[in-house]
Amino acid sequence: MNPLEHIQQPQQTSYYQKDILLNLSFTFTTNNRIFFPNGKHKDLFNHNYKFDISIKSPVDTYGLAIDFYQIERDYNEKIAPLLNAPILNESLPVMNTTVENIAYFIWQQVELLLDEHSEIQTLTLYETIHHSVTLNKEMMQ
């Protein structure tokens, strides 16, 4: 027996109808070569990255913002294959695959997934648990 069977939709479905920040986290693993001045480079093998992203979204009359799961599905379909590629230098646009450049790329790609009412507020990309870069809306305007 379903203990929630007696619960019916309320007449008012939204408690508060303002913008809200949705926070999502993603990880990817790849190999890449980062170039430094004087012809030096560093190779990263099976390197694990993590990023956290905050998206501002309006809350609708049902008390729902943009769908977490739709963002995850779109990310997994359109962006994750590029980031989880065997060699990141070959799957991304021509760039030095620094954490800074990767963060800009992710921001631009996630923007393409959002509707006209939602916008990224911050994105933090972790190269390690102790090293990260953060972009915010003001920086990206």
From TrEMBL:
This is 6-carboxytetrahydropterin synthase. InterPro entries: 6-PTP_synth/QueD. It comes from Macrococcoides bohemicum. It comes from the Bacteria.
